[in-house]
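Contributing: when you submit paired examples, paste them exactly as shown. First protein:
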Amino acid sequence: MFLFFLWISSFLLTLFVLVFCLFSGPAGWHQEKIGQSECDRCSENEYSDRSPCKKCPSGYSANRAAHKCSICGPGLIRPATRKRGECSKCIEGTYQPEEGKAECLKCIAGQYVNYNGSSSCISCPKGSSQDQPGSSSCKQCDPDTYSENSSSITCLDCAAGSSSEAGSSKCLSCEAGMYSNEVGQPCKFCKAGFFRKSGQVATSCTPCDKGEYQNEKGQASCLPCIPGEYNDINAQIKVRTLLLYNLFLQI
């Protein structure tokens, strides 16, 4: 008789726990096992509204004993396979503009993001480029290259007759006394015997005319021969002396 009473008591207690957890217990708690004396908390990424615990869908998260799942905001994700409760931030080079998503998106080429948890990517500024998707930085254009637009995938070579410094958004014509006859190459000094004025085509230098000379490189003009000197051919770096003129001066 005592054992029967003990069994009845245990059965009634179990029934009470099951009914209490199912209908009257706190949300986020549950109990489906027979013979238990208390309710159990739902695990992370599970929830219960006084019913058996259910898994949160991807893009949602929940801590233990949750009565509902919380949606992951922009810049945050939670794959269905992730066991930890909180949403995770998108890493550098990735983003997520929408809420409730399971995965991040890679920044496209020409864009970047250099911090975690971003909801958008940043365009590479002028003077830089990025040809790889999912990047956390842009690459500065090398000397004698440029990018005039933001979000550039590659930098372009400067045209012949122009050059640029690193990180430039445009190329500039070679300075006077300099030239460049190849694409993407730095400006070079005009050789001695040659010159180039500002405003002239910068792909070549001009030889000094007869009666002129230039003994230094990188010059914007030639020097005239003075009385008693002469040059009868172009591109000379020194002058010739008139012998008769010197003899006349000695008389």
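Second protein:
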Amino acid sequence: MRKHSKARGTVRPGSARPVEDGQTGRSPARRASVRFGILFLLLVSLFTYLASTQIAWKYVHDPLCEWVAWTAVPFLALWGEASSAGSLLNLDGFSVSIVDACDGVLPSYIYLSAVIAFPSRWRDKLWGILLGLPAIFLINLIRVVTLVIVGARWPDLFEGVHIYVWQALVIALSMALWILWAERFARTASRVRA
């Protein structure tokens, strides 16, 4: 049941603020937040589906896994004898296979979804994509290099660092990168326009 105010129309239950007939009573910020959340989830779902297709395996995951292994070798060579063959990476006899979870695609499409869903100009989104995606792949490369070094030097620590440290760190750094973009580029641009 709604109360009626003589001056302004309907008063929502639990709210002292009158709402004009035909209005939802939601602020533009709340609508933008809901829109962001829904669009973000839809985009993550879409990218998850696309990343699981055979085309993605052939043209994205497999080449990226090989690229990550190949790119890691010069850095690992500073620590010992390093080599790669396809997506297999070796440092002083310790070998790992770079698989789809290690190619940087998952944090990239989560970041990409957040940038696209965020209410900002397309020019700002483009800057977020152009600066953010290479940064995420760099973070992932650092992750792979450090994990292989840990595995070669301290094999007992490898599994813990792999699962508990770096997975959380990649997610945290990717989201920190998005927050940095949103605050520096998107929010600054919206303040300038206002």
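If you have annotations for the second protein, write them as plain sentences, like these:
The helical segments are 28-51, 54-76, 105-117, 122-153, 155-193.
The longest helix spans residues 155-193.
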